[in-house]
Amino acid sequence: MTWWRRLVGDLKARNHLDTYALSLVVFSFAILSLLSDELNENLRWAVLLSGVGLLIYRLTLVPASPSPVELLHDRTVFEEAPLAPLLRDARDVRVFAPSAVNLLSPQTCELLRKTVLNRRNGSVRVVVLDPAETAAIAIASRQLDDSLEFPIQRLPQSLASTLERLKLIAGWRTEGAFSYRLFPYNPGFSLVLVDPETPHGRVIVEFHGFHNPSTSSRMHLELVAGRNERWYRYWIQQFDRVWEEASAPEILTRREKP
Length: 258
Hints:
Layout: H1 2-13, H2 17-35, H3 41-60, E1 71-73, H4 77-80, H5 84-87, E2 92-96, H6 106-114, E3 123-129, H7 134-146, H8 155-170, E4 177-183, E5 189-194, E6 202-207, E7 219-224, H9 229-245
Parallel strand pairs: 2-3, 3-4
Antiparallel strand pairs: 1-7, 2-5, 5-6, 6-7
Helix pairs in contact: 2-3
């Protein structure tokens, strides 16, 4: 029910409160008018004119056209708008990437420890490629490394580094839950989801493409909750499908759910 999610989201964000409040009053008086003839005539007209006045005022505002795409950019945007504010109050973070070596830097891992993983109901889930799938890794390396004009790292080594880091994180004693899985091939995109089931959720999609000057130049698409629900939900479901198809590592991660 998109309208219900929009209503709840507006109320939590305190958007259009005047409209909702007056609408409630108008509808209440409309119902009372049907049930009783004892309402003061002047009061009826006051409520009616207030509703008309608010409607006219709203028509004078220039609405922001809802766009399915909030931001189109590349990785350099995180230099100006880092992840810290996005993760400050987050409780649900989901990541899928071939190696996630750039995203899961020591600084980001420490940030996750102090925010999401520091909360009792916090959850971080990560999916990366399975290094045992040598053929798939070779193809992904050809796409992600060999097609760059200015490569600075290689997928196999980056993946090995990330897996070592994920194993260490899985051993942390934190309030929140952490788990990771391995996927057998690269579908051509990466995902970062932050509180996707909430009204302030964010979904960031990176498309790998065929040829790029550098890793940081890949196209990013950012979707927000409440805008174009179809594609917002689509990319959430993409992660959910990846998670379901991915396999748990040989050493079970902490608090991994079956």
